[in-house]
Amino acid sequence: MQKPDFNIEEVNKIIRGRRSMFVAQFKENDPIDDAIIEEMLENANWAPTHKLTQPWSFTVFSGDGLVKFADFQANLYKERATKNGNFIEATFQKFKENPLKASHVIAIKMKRDFRANLPVMEEIAAVSMAVQNMYLTASAHGLAAYWGTGGPTFWPEAKEWFGLGDEDMLMGFFYVAKPATDSWPEGRRKPIEEKVEWVKG
Ligand SMILES: Cc1cc2nc3c(=O)[nH]c(=O)nc-3n(C[C@H](O)[C@H](O)[C@H](O)COP(=O)(O)O)c2cc1C
């Protein structure tokens, strides 16, 4: 294969310009074409992966599928919170309504392949890189998107609902929508110099 003709200025621009945008910034009832979501997923599939285990997999909710997911997480919240005596109606409503404000919600799943004998850290890292590829693709399309790890992410019942085994992991949800405005969020980072130690000679 011939060496690709990459454009470093474009790469820097998209990596540094990528942003999270949250539900409050979503344009509701204006779905994104599935083709764009497929492009995001295709790019996710090109993440690096030790021993080629490709531990990422995804469940994409759109249309009435969003209602299915919203009802599932709201009802599960209700069941768990009622049992624990800490049910809050507003939280229940948020679980029921937030997915419907997105165009697509993508459940992020990590599936273990024990034949590869890899530490779990490596598989979580590979899935995270797949999510970064989705993030970059969404931002390049000017879309609003974020990775959320709230709600059912850490609930064992949700893991089961998604057909994941004990050693697999539900790693959260990637919410995607068209943005409600043209403005783009400012980035906030401490300088890289504070996080790097060089050893030269
Ligand atoms: C593993 C992971 C989990 C996250 N979970 C949440 C979350 O549960 N809720 C949320 O609002 N943002 C979540 N985020 C997004 C961060 O809030 C966001 O990346 C941060 O504010 C920096 O903004 P930026 O992505 O625009 O640079 C998560 C990000 C990562 C990498």
UniProtKB/TrEMBL annotation:
Its cofactor is FMN. Keywords: Flavoprotein, FMN, NAD, NADP, Oxidoreductase. Residues 15-174 form the Nitroreductase domain. It holds the Pfam family Nitroreductase. Belongs to the nitroreductase family. This is Nitroreductase. It comes from Belliella filtrata.
